[in-house]
Request: fold
Amino acid sequence: MQTINGLVIKSGLVLGRARLVSQPSLEVASSRITSREVNRELRLLNDAVDRVADDLGQHLQALRDAGSAREILEAHLLILRDPEIASLIHEAVSNKLESAAAAVQRVFSEVAAGFQNLDNEFYAQRSADYRDVQQHLLSELIGQKKADLQDWQPDQIAVLKEPTPSQVSAFSRLKVPAYCSEQGSFTSHASILTRSLNIAAVTALPGLCGQVRDGDALILDAIDGRVIIDPDQPTLLLYDQLREKYRSQEEQEARTPGEPTRTAGGRRIHLRCNLDLLSEIDRPAKLGADGIGLYRTEFLYLGKDRLPSEELQFEIYREVAEKAAPHSVTIRSFDLGGDKLSHLIPAPQEENPYLGCRGIRFSLAQPAIFRTQIRAVLKASQFGRINLMFPMVTDLKDFLAASSIVDKCRQELDAEGTPYDAEMPLGVMIEVPSAALCADELARHCGFLSIGTNDLVQYVLAADRNNSALTPYYVTHHPAVLQLLRQTLAAGLHYGKPVSVCGEMASLPEYVPLLIGMGFTDLSVNPSSYRECRRIIQRCDAELDALFAGQSFSCGLAAIEELIYQRLKPYYHL
Reply:
């Protein structure tokens, strides 16, 4: 029996047999053609594009109700039909006499490398999408088909090096219950698809493919984040019991989605959802969530060839507000910097965009773009309960500057006779250490505070969360971070202002009892984590409250880890 620990992408417990899924190595045998072969190569290219488009179309047909999954695959279809890429490939075949396969390999590689070199998480993911389409198209061109998964058996668990979006969508079509992989990240498009399509998965498992053989008995524990190879009989029996318990809990949650979320002691916890895409807008209501605690608006700007108009934004925000009713939706003004919009507006090169002109800093530096968004949000506020939140706020000065622009937009709408909610609350993201340290002053003036733990942790600890070499330093439960969380909560309580946690911390099982014990009553989580978080909250009891009585978090990291991974474990572990 062997255990490998990794990262949970989508929770679940699956017992089965391993099936290795390899990504074929696609090598182009011949790269040069003669002028007489040009028309033949172009026909081969067009036929391959059509076959890949048909395949993507079949995937999309099977994903009618999976919003984010459809959007990712629709993006792949747009990449496949991109006229600029098509022109470059046709030119390479017609004028440079490259074979169709060689042209596809070179052009797509150059485009993908261009995105990768921008050293930006969003563009790195775009690079992965182009490589996935490239692999799909090359496999058709050189006649080397992808791994045949049609004979998949219900008890098989996919084992692979690193999943691609097209593989994950194929897993969904073939009803593959789970997969585990040697490489991967929580924010990749493959992982987003995995959660959207409800496939249990664990990734970042070092040495996995070299230690698992086809047919090996496998336990995929996507609760604690581990894979057990060739488990012994006692372990199999234990996990079989845990699986039945997990199924029972999921069935119970599905029967009572509309009941308010409460701890075992009766304390009301407002559990909301974070959303990125309009296509997922129905999920919070289906889950029984208390609204939308964070609606990110960056998708309106990224990857577009023009800035979104006021009317377009208004229609989207109105739909979000109407769908969230009777609950509220917290819209975050765009958290972007010039590095992500340089193709639309002139922006100076920044050595470190994460510490540069981004979030509210960028909005204040680009008032015309900011006013367009603010006006759209205000106009939509008459159709539901909208809260507006500003990201990357450093101190009260930032909030007052942003509030001043909101006031000017209100005056403009008054002059136009356009209705809006004059009482729409304005709040701030607490994600910069200075904002947490100034939380008392901010709480006095703001309508609400929301803690973005992803950035807060990396700024407090000076550890880039996207740099795998710094993973040991990126410690979400570091005493310095927890003291800032507690200080922010105390400021909100003092002034009677709501304080929520909307960062990734609120979606991770081991931190939910920690946050509840600290006194937070408002969490906003990923939709895929909602039910598990709700289940954990319902276990929190008076004994948990007693554990935190007088807890200052000024103790060392070892003591905090003993609290989380030993004393709190019964609350988040099956």
